[in-house]
Amino acid sequence: MATPENDSLFEAPPMAEQERMVEAILFATADPVSIKELTGRMPHGSDPAEALVYVRKKYEGRGVQLVKIEDAYAFRTAPDLGFLMQKETVEVRKLSRAAIETLAIVAYHQPVTRAEIEEIRGVSVSRGTIDQLIEMEWIRFGRRRMTPGRPTTFVVTQGFLDHFALENARDLPGLKELRAAGLLDNRPPPGTLDPDAEDDDAEDDDQVEMFEDTPE
Amino acid sequence: MATPENDSLFEAPPMAEQERMVEAILFATADPVSIKELTGRMPHGSDPAEALVYVRKKYEGRGVQLVKIEDAYAFRTAPDLGFLMQKETVEVRKLSRAAIETLAIVAYHQPVTRAEIEEIRGVSVSRGTIDQLIEMEWIRFGRRRMTPGRPTTFVVTQGFLDHFALENARDLPGLKELRAAGLLDNRPPPGTLDPDAEDDDAEDDDQVEMFEDTPE
Amino acid sequence: MSDTDFENDDESTVLSVSDRVAAEALIVDVGAYEGPLDLLLTLSRTQKVDLRQISILALAEQYLAFVEKAKELRLELAADYLVMAAWLAFLKSRLLLPPDPTEDGPSGEELAAHLAFQLERLAAMRDVAAKLMGRDQLGRDFFARGITEDVQRVRKVTYTATLLDLMQGYARIRTKDDFRPFVMDREAVMTMEQALDRMRGLIGFAGEWTDISSYLPDGWNMDGVRSRSSTAATFAATLELVKEGKIDMRQGDTYAPIQIRKRADRDGDT
Asked: A103 and A180: one domain?
């Protein structure tokens, strides 16, 4: 094999060999390489400009192309294959609490307006939450209400029913069943409270119970 | 052109196109890419293994070559053109004799425990030596031995194979000869394997088991 | 005694002399050896034979000569070297003496064979280590791609929820409704401001003396806690209205009902 020291004693390498050299140098170098630099690195008498012409032709239409950047050359992946440089990772996340609650309200109260959702939740519903649920195709717009302002309503979709394995939204367990299943507080509605129980101690107990009850 | 989202709706791309894709993906990275990853990144229905056969053929004798490292592939410059690349040469940290020998022992005897390395070299292995080889990503921890104390074993990495241009550990130079000469046998010192010489049967069994564990 | 036997062996005597010389040459850099096995391997080279044909007996002799010399020169030898010396002395005696049938354990030949195996294995490992390092190496003889493109990690997030999440979410909202009175604090307390607001709205219709208790809001006059709170708030509100000159109030007797009426400003009687 030719070593750099004695190149000058020999003829320039054959053009096929020069092509290989250009190819290897452009492949391994971290920056685009100018013709001047190629000449400096290749054996004496080489003509990298000519070799580059052949190399460019060889890579035409391939997954990798020879490109010229100012006066330097480099290999680049073909622009139409850019999508391959993405690695898609799918991450499954739990729906946020706000989204679940909004979804639950739509499911139990459909068709329901945004104002009604807010009233039931006691907080305003962010646009993002509604958008997310629509994007997931779990809720969709229903008919407009025939009330002043003609607000849109939301209903759940077939996709929602499929995901939760429900035949229809009426299959959702009612409040009584939720309570029986321990998902609801067993506290009686206000007004029916035993007045004697309403001292500080009782209030404290309820407070504690509430926090213990916090679902998650 | 097909976009990743609707690939599954279409046929797999033609093989020529798959070749381009394999070429682009492998050109884009310095590290070997496994078939599995290629499959994951290419459109649905692609057969990167087949495409790789054509790509390899296309690059035969060129300045850049397709090499296989275990189940992964990478482009590497042809070794005979190394002299052109003085600029790219990275100064590899000079390894001590102890490190080089330890590396060789791990490669030829893997999976191998520290005690076995010490037995072969006749001296204790310093922590620094193992650490250095792990840091260079040439060796890594293998499975624990199912022997008393459950010692960890060491094996060589894909990075090691890539560095030394080995397709897999079976291609290590002289491996067959060493095995034929019995030099890779885990031969215990005389007396230790003779059941009559040992009064502790249990210990003996473990010993036997350990030597049956002789690496492939 | 064994020594005498050894000296009588022609071949061994020759080796012994040359070995002593070799040992003296080697002794200078004890530190250069990686332990006794390494030293033994180096010594074995002086025999200039295939390691499989090596004379372990001669090697043991060389090693012992080395250790002897080191002692003479008062060189510090690591414990390993002395352990090996003792073991080799033992091996030597086993090799030279006829086997004692009463003694169990491995024979001298077996021990010698194992040492030869160890030496051969170490030599082989050194040999392949050199071969390995002599291979084409990445970053020295062949090269990886210089311009790398980062693979963009596109993270696609899909959200999920279970029916249980849904029901719990709904239950949470309903529970919160039930609970609201506690969160809002005191359902059974009426503030003076609330009473005042209420009174201001009602006072316009109160031309005649009316019992103050009739101003208590519906539902606040039955329950003990609520009626106490609303009575106190309403009373405080009436005092405020009297101060403002909006109403007159009177009480006929101690504990008699308190009555109020709208003040007929200017046009009414004083």
From this structure: yes
